[in-house]
Amino acid sequence: MVPGHSEWKRNLLLVGFMGAGKTTLGGILSKRCRLDFVDTDQLITEQFGLSVADIFSRYGENAFRVAETELLRNLAARCRHSVIATGGGMVLKDENWRVMRQIGPVVFLRADEQELVERLSSATGRPLADDSDREAILERYRQRLPCYLRADLVVETKNQAPLEVVDAILGGLERVNPKWLF
Ligand SMILES: Nc1ncnc2c1ncn2[C@@H]1O[C@H](COP(=O)(O)OP(=O)(O)O)[C@@H](O)[C@H]1O
Ligand SMILES: O=C(O)C1=C[C@@H](OP(=O)(O)O)[C@@H](O)[C@H](O)C1
Ligand SMILES: [Mg+2]
């Protein structure tokens, strides 16, 4: 077991910037490996009965961040055999990292800056990206990069189709720790 990780629970977590593909690839990976799929944004929106954008506008970003940490703690207590797609800001708190390490290996989906900007400009529902211009998005991404790089494995997604990324995640995990077989 890699230092800092507790017992192997057959979970893995995906982290990365908005638009990197955590939700999309997490769904594909979970089916491929016959694991459950958890998306933290989805559980939080169900809990509030509101979209992420509405949670931000009604209660503020901090309320969303508190809900993220609380949810992560719940997942640490009960989650087994699951792929967990996190929201892009989950990596911002040290406390979240402490809990993620209890849940399982953390995989950073590193996306190309241009691809991120294109994906985010053609989508809505992300309050931290919706009104931002290209430079503001990239500035946020670059500021967060050291947080994402705390992951156990970095998977490059540039020019990779979703199925290729899934293969890269599985191959990479096995290389880092052969016990992490799904
Ligand atoms: N490897 C990829 N190749 C092509 N499109 C992708 C890839 N990964 C994600 N996408 C697309 O990018 C958009 C954002 O993906 P999403 O899974 O919601 O990202 P995240 O959960 O990291 O914010 C979706 O439209 C998705 O289909
Ligand atoms: O990066 C962020 O701070 C956020 C990312 C979003 O999730 P995705 O990364 O799945 O878009 C969502 O949690 C919220 O809008 C905040
Ligand atoms: Mg997502």
UniProtKB/TrEMBL annotation:
One GO biological-process annotation of the entry reads:
amino acid biosynthetic process
Q: Where in the cell is it found?
A: Cytoplasm
- PROSITE patterns of this UniProt entry? SHIKIMATE_KINASE
Keywords noted in UniProt: Amino-acid biosynthesis, Aromatic amino acid biosynthesis, ATP-binding, Cytoplasm, Kinase, Magnesium, Metal-binding, Nucleotide-binding, Transferase
Q: Which cofactor names does the annotation list?
A: Mg(2+)
Name the principal localization, coarsely classed.
Answer: cytoplasm
According to UniProt, this protein's pathway is: Metabolic intermediate biosynthesis; chorismate biosynthesis; chorismate from D-erythrose 4-phosphate and phosphoenolpyruvate: step 5/7
Keyword Amino-acid biosynthesis in the entry? The reply is yes
Q: Does the keyword Cytoplasm apply?
A: yes
> What cellular-component terms does GO give this entry?
cytosol
**What reactions does this protein catalyze?**
shikimate + ATP = 3-phosphoshikimate + ADP + H(+)
Residue positions annotated to bind ATP are: 19-24, 126, 160
- Chain sites annotated for binding Mg(2+): 23
Comment on bound cofactor: Binds 1 Mg(2+) ion per subunit.
InterPro entries xref list:
P-loop_NTPase (IPR027417), Shikimate/glucono_kinase (IPR031322), Shikimate_kinase/TSH1 (IPR000623), Shikimate_kinase_CS (IPR023000)
Give EC number(s), comma-separated.
2.7.1.71
Q: Which GO terms describe its molecular function?
A: ATP binding; magnesium ion binding; shikimate kinase activity
Query: What residues bind substrate, as annotated?
Result: 41, 65, 88, 144
Q: Which domain of life is it from?
A: Bacteria
The transmembrane segments are none
Family assignment from sequence similarity: Belongs to the shikimate kinase family.
Q: What does this protein do?
A: Catalyzes the specific phosphorylation of the 3-hydroxyl group of shikimic acid using ATP as a cosubstrate.
Subunit: Monomer.
Q: What is this protein called?
A: Shikimate kinase
Upper classification of the source organism reads: Bacteria, Pseudomonadati, Thermodesulfobacteriota, Desulfuromonadia, Desulfuromonadales
